[in-house]
Amino acid sequence: MEQPSQKRYTNQELKEKLNGRLASNNLKESFEHAIEGIIYALSSERNLRIHFFVGFVILLITLFLPIDKNNYIWIFFAVFFVIISELINTLIEKILDLFVPEYHPIVKVIKDISSGVVLWAALFSVVVGIAIIGNYLFNWNVLIAKVVGFVFVTAFPLIYLILGVRKWKKKR
């Protein structure tokens, strides 16, 4: 089997070598490629579709609430944070699948961690939603968000950590 070339290319040489097949200096084409990537991810990833839908519903609800600018920014950040996390998770999974198509325990760990990032982003978004939207819709005190946030940040992970360590030790 022939080994790949060890020659190092400059960015300009790579652009010339690729001749625009993978990269584009055209702004319109760059946006088209980005949109194609998002469409692909949406069409292939169920969880991303769920996050987009929930984010859309949340942002739609906030249109009818008298939310101040600062809180609105937090809501937007929470929604976008989950979607960005899911897109990065998809990216990591696709790269791993490309280079390691068969099962490998380290690949599983990387994918699990990547999914954990999405879970953490979703938990953050729930706390933001409870603190802001809960206040406007149900007149919830911010204390509820603090308690939920505390549970998510401490108790919830600790329980799963304890259970996970026990499960992991049994496997070894």
Automatic annotation (TrEMBL):
One of its GO terms (biological process) is phospholipid biosynthetic process. It comes from Thermosipho japonicus. The chain crosses the membrane at residues 48-67, 73-92, 113-137, 143-163. This is Diacylglycerol kinase (ATP). Its main location: membrane. Its EC number is 2.7.1.107. Its cofactor is Mg(2+). It is a multi-pass membrane protein. GO terms for molecular function: ATP binding; ATP-dependent diacylglycerol kinase activity; metal ion binding. Keywords: ATP-binding, Cell membrane, Kinase, Lipid biosynthesis, Lipid metabolism, Magnesium, Membrane, Metal-binding, Nucleotide-binding, Phospholipid biosynthesis, Phospholipid metabolism, Transferase, Transmembrane, Transmembrane helix. GO terms for cellular component: plasma membrane. It is an enzyme of class 2 (transferase). A divalent metal cation binds at E45, E93.
